Write the structure tokens for this entry.
Amino acid sequence: MSFNWSVYGLQVQANQLIPGLTHSASPSVPDLQICLGFLPEELNQAAEHASRPWYASADKAEGDIPILRIWNLADRRLFLLRYADGTEFVVNSTGTKMWSRWPKDVATEDVMSCLTGPVLGFVLLLRGIICLHASAIAIGDRAIAIAGPGEAGKSTTAAAFAKLGYPVLSDDVVTLDEQDGAFLVHPAYSRIRLWPDSAEALYGSADVLPRLAPAWDKRYVDLTENDYRFQKSPVPLAATYILDERALDCSAARIETLSSKEALVSLIGNTYATYLMDRTMRGREFEILRRVIAAIPIRRVVPPADYGHLPRLCNMILEDFDMMTGSAPHASPRSLQG
């Protein structure tokens, strides 16, 4: 049995259900085939004899094991991604086939979380699609990206916009798919992942949201439920907002214009999975980002530190977006409260 999905602009065919992805019609030739639960024997042998990794993360798990290691196999025709819990993904160099296996004590939800985020982000890189580490919201027929370093509040801000009634395109990976002079943001998966403090700030308690996986304290918002809206079709990117250090004094919250040089440096710092790029990918990234900043406003946001001011942050971004694009003021579809 096979299942057909649409994610990040790819038509995916898999042998198992993948939570959060959008069903699609069966493609004549899928962009990506995924085999979950096993490696073919030849790949199994190659994985077992992998020696020095091409990449090892600086972050370590118990036993001083890197959280992620990556090997080049079969004369660079395959990549093996191995997580500290023993979960493995093998991806071919063209990003058209993937296999995965994991230990019995690893929850399937953990595996799917890696698959729909960093692993598919790596697949997009292999296929020549540069992505931002960001969330994306649809405002009318255009999109804004909300980027920033880890724990800057990207997902929290996306969830705040979702509560206001705006459709969400992506929570973690924002595609910059250049087509006909525009940069399309493709729909990712219909979930927003939140840490407990963010869930509590938005919903009063983290316990009202389901856990992402049994071993994680992270929660998720299901964008297919409770009148939330998941944007199922791609829309062009119209602006990018990069979250900076939060202002303790809410009156100091502001949005600033970036010079071309500042914008390029900021985008390079917020490109998805930059640590996995080789020289060719780096060159492509640089050229694409130069075209992005020539076509799309890049803004720095100093948000209020208090999550109680999330409505104000959303309104700041909406007002700035309307001013830059000359749009009529956007009234939020509904209140953030409740």
